[in-house]
Amino acid sequence: GQSDVETVEIERDNDGLAGFRVIQSNLQVTGPISDEAASRGIREQQVIVKVDDHKVRNWNEYKKYAYGNPKFSLSLRRPLKERLSGATFQRPRCKYPSIESSQGEGQYLNALQSLALVRDAMAMSTSHAGGKQSGHEAS
């Protein structure tokens, strides 16, 4: 229905950037998204259906109306999973660091490694207390 589409106003910054990126093959919004664009309602996985009042079906049509245009409105279809679940516009907080942030990824792996170290240390201290320690190597 119509409620699946929302319209946001875009203003390009001094460098002519709109603050988000678009996947050319399907006009889907992708990150990184600037704070400015996010505050206007731009979210990942939205699909651009109109620039101002022009229907856009492909990259060339999008470029024709949006490129070099300092101010324009975008009509965006909500991400499919939001339409299916009727979810609100809040972006879910990611439990695990996304793959984009290699730094976060490293922290996550470090945490796993330090957990493993703690477990090995426990294994060692208990195995000295006599009584066979079983199963630790296999886990």
Helix content: 25-40%
* Unreliable spans: 96-106, 133-139
Provide mean pLDDT, rounded.
Answer: 77
Q: Element order, helices and strands?
A: EEEHEEHEHH
Our count of helices gives 4
Largest sheet: 4 strands, antiparallel
- Read across the widest sheet, the strand sequence of neighbours is 1-6-4-5
Q: Radius of gyration, rounded?
A: 24 Å
The tally of strands reads 6
| Class by alpha and beta content | alpha+beta
Our measurement of the CA-to-CA distance between the termini, rounded to an integer number of angstroms, reads 52 Å
* Oligomer description: single chain
3D shape: elongated
Give the strand content.
15-25%
In short:
With 139 residues, this protein is an alpha+beta fold.
How would you sum up this structure, described in words?
The strands form 2 sheets. Strands 1-6-4-5 form a 4-stranded antiparallel β-sheet, covered by helices on one side. Helices cover 33% and strands 19% of the residues. By secondary structure, it is an alpha+beta fold. A hairpin with a 4-residue loop joins strand 2 (21-23) and strand 3 (28-30). The N and C termini lie far apart (52 Å). Residues 96-106 and 133-139 have low confidence and may be disordered. The chain has 4 helices and 6 strands.
Main attributes?
33% helix, 6 strands, 4-stranded antiparallel sheet, two-stranded antiparallel ribbon, 139 residues, 19% strand, alpha+beta
Note the topology.
Elements: E1 5-11, E2 21-23, E3 28-30, H1 35-40, E4 47-51, E5 54-55, H2 59-66, E6 71-77, H3 80-85, H4 102-127
Antiparallel strand pairs: 1-6, 2-3, 4-5, 4-6
